[in-house]
UniProtKB/TrEMBL annotation:
<protein>
    <submittedName>
        <fullName>Cytokine receptor-like factor 1</fullName>
    </submittedName>
</protein>
Amino acid sequence: VAVISPQDPVLRIGSSLTATCALSHELGLLSSTLYWTLNGICLSSSTYSMVSPEILSVTLHNLNGSQQQSGDNLVCHGADGRVLAGSCLYVGMPPEKPVNLTCWSRNTKDLSCKWSPGGRGETHIRTKYTLKYKLRWYGREKECENDSTGKQRYFCHIPRNLALFTPYEIWVEAANQLGSATSDITTLDILDVVTTDPPANVQVSRVGDLEDQLTVRWASPPELKDVLFQAKYQIRYRLEDSSEWKVVVDDVGNQTSCRLAGLQPGTVYFVQVRCNPVGIYGSRKAGIWSDWSHPAAASTPSSERLQSGSCNTKPGEQNSTLRRELKQFFGWVRKHAYGCSGMSIKLYDQWRVWLQKTHKTRNQVGKQNLSLSLSLPLSLSSHYLC
């Protein structure tokens, strides 16, 4: 019926284009009766030019990037609106060098990488990104086979057959109909980019009747038992009515429990734990933090006391104001309670429980150490002090 020329051109942003619609002689139509649309919008007749009775041209200046990667629709219509011919315009930019290439391996079993497009990122036309890799000193070049044109355009996953003791060279190539670009090469060892699944079975519980403390326990990821990992953990917590997480700054190390102290009494706390494998197979670099575990929750007993938070990773450590006060209290007891020995800082928690039950304040403890100690029941006094 009719033909548009050029067909499906690929143009840079800012370019100009002159297209023609040539009618078939059998139609019996004149080019003066035709009109043009771009993406369904009529183009001004001032952009038309009648080349001959059967050919009508249109000229477009300073073209913008295509509104869709499948191309913009340039259509030639008859006077009655009938579509006579069409062409797709691909208007965009060549890709720029991809940047921010980072990779990680979950449990040394696979390799995942992500990156960002270079420059402005959007090319307005279909651009293919291909992640390529090879062993640094030998081996042939391979391609990551994931389709990076879908929802995760800048991501690729290599599921198997990875070397653990030889570094890889990894890079990303970007290409479209206007050009191509290649990222910088990243050299990495799988053992240096290891992450694990989050710690499992996270549990939070009260510490007796202590109103400002909770104990957190968790299980190491199973992968830590399969390979020669060492690990360190990090804890964060938040109040039930808050969206702000507080990360415990104490070095939890490789233990699988921790006591949170200095919490608000009568409050529900949500707690999460994550893991970082270090020292795996003699690697000197730390791994990558895992995702946070599923949150676990518990509430502290009710009280009017309010303090600031910390993580008590060593039971014998005096890391709060009350512990310092208690140490002074025990010092007084040693001087005045004859025949007593074996005093332990662990008695602190028991003493505080008793103190809460008597509804005494810390100020009263500081002023009335002697009267409180004498007011203890005989059986309780003998248990705590001797």
